[in-house]
Amino acid sequence: MANHKSALKRHRQSLVRNERNTMVRTRIKNVVKAVRSAVEANDTDLAASTLRKATAVLDKAATKKVIHARTAARRISRLHAAVNKMA
């Protein structure tokens, strides 16, 4: 464990950021799962609405640097492809 005042503060900050990032990653998993389950159920309306929500969550996570921007773009692209394949 750190002993310097600044190192202790950095450790506290890292714990807070880690918890926040974990929540964002969990949210990403849940919205992607919702889109996938709507596609599996062939529910076009639900898939479209959850896709909009998933796109917003992924873009925000990329903006906050929780996930890489290209990772977010790739996931959004794959979800769009899955939803478009339904129609």
TrEMBL record:
Belongs to the bacterial ribosomal protein bS20 family. Residues 1-14 have a biased composition (Basic residues). One of its GO terms (molecular function) is structural constituent of ribosome. Binds directly to 16S ribosomal RNA. Keywords: Ribonucleoprotein, Ribosomal protein, RNA-binding, rRNA-binding. It comes from the Bacteria. This is Small ribosomal subunit protein bS20. The lineage of its organism: Bacteria, Pseudomonadati, Thermodesulfobacteriota, Desulfovibrionia, Desulfovibrionales. Pfam families: Ribosomal_S20p. Residues 1-21 are annotated as: Disordered. It comes from Maridesulfovibrio hydrothermalis AM13 = DSM 14728. GO terms for biological process: translation. HAMAP family: Ribosomal_bS20. InterPro entries: Ribosomal_bS20 (IPR002583), Ribosomal_bS20_sf (IPR036510). GO terms for cellular component: cytosol; small ribosomal subunit. PANTHER family: 30S RIBOSOMAL PROTEIN S20, SMALL RIBOSOMAL SUBUNIT PROTEIN BS20C.
